[in-house]
Every structure is written in structure tokens, then in C-alpha cells.
């Protein structure tokens, strides 16, 4: 099984396991993102070692995914000027010569869970919302 992380708009980060076969990986990714089997899934690269998989509605009308956005900003070391919406599934990058996604590095799994928890705690303390700078400060990795 291949390790990945699913970050949802309700501020949870769940370690999940994908099958090794590329077609089966794609099917699970579509299912976890709530996409039709033949629906669009975008791939975004905010870190050279991983891939953010976003449903076709990732910057549209789906709920804002503040934790995934903060993690992407943290790993990219720059503030994104667009939101990430809906669930986001993060895998390792494809290995050269392969069409299957690799395991997400255990440290990156931990970082995804750490950032998601920090953003969840911040937003719980300030239900009326917080400035973007505060979200990015909460997401800073130590």
C-alpha cells in the first residue's frame, strides 16, 4: 500500500493507504475527492516530493480548505493568491519511469497533520475568522 494524506475542509488530516497499481490509485483518488470516476482531478505541485490532488471544483464553489491552503503555502514558501477548495489528497510524486504515485514521506505526513491541527486550533479560537497572516503563522513548521 502507498501512504497518502487526505485533508478535508472540516480541518482533518487523515493518513490513508492507496493500492500500488496506478489505475487503482486513480480510482481511490477520485472516490476520496468525491469525483466521478471519469471526472476531472487536478494535480498541483507545491513541493518537489509530492502531489496535491484536487477535485475539478478545487477553486470553485466547494468549501474552502484552509488547512490544505496553509500547507501548500508553507511548503512552497509563498502565499498562494487563490484558495484551495474541497478535499485535497496528497501523495508522493511519481517515480521516474512509473505511472504510480510513491509513498508520501513520513515527515511530510507528520507536517500535514501538524499544520492541519494548528489551523484547526486557531480557527476554533477565532470563529469569526482571522487574517491570512495569522493562518500562515499557525502553519509555520518548527
What does this structure look like?
The chain is of the alpha+beta class and 142 residues long. It has one domain (2-139). It has four helices and five strands; from the N terminus they run ββαββαβαα. The protein has helices at 22-33, 66-76, 106-125, 132-139, and strands at residues 2-8, 12-18, 41-44, 50-55, 88-92. Strands 2-1-5-4-3 form a five-stranded antiparallel β-sheet. Strand 3 (41-44) and strand 4 form a beta hairpin. Helix 2 crosses helix 3 (106-125) and helix 3 (106-125) packs antiparallel against helix 4. The longest helix has 20 residues, at 106-125. The termini are far apart. The mean pLDDT is 91.
Give me the secondary-structure topology.
Layout: E1 2-8, E2 12-18, H1 22-33, E3 41-44, E4 50-55, H2 66-76, E5 88-92, H3 106-125, H4 132-139
Antiparallel strand pairs: 1-2, 1-5, 3-4, 4-5
Helix pairs in contact: 2-3, 3-4
List keywords for this structure.
5-stranded antiparallel β-sheet, 142 residues, 4 helices, alpha+beta
In short:
The protein is 36% helix and 20% strand. By secondary structure, it is α+β, with helices and mostly antiparallel strands.
Tally of helical segments: 4
User: Going across the major beta sheet, what is the strand order?
Assistant: 2-1-5-4-3
Mass-distribution shape: globular
The major pleated sheet works out as: 5 strands, antiparallel
Spell out the helices and strands N to C.
Answer: EEHEEHEHH
How much helicity do the residues have?
A: 25-40%
**How many separate domains make up the residues?**
1
Class of secondary structure makeup:
alpha+beta
How many E strands?
5
Low-confidence stretches: none
What percent of residues are in strands? 15-25%
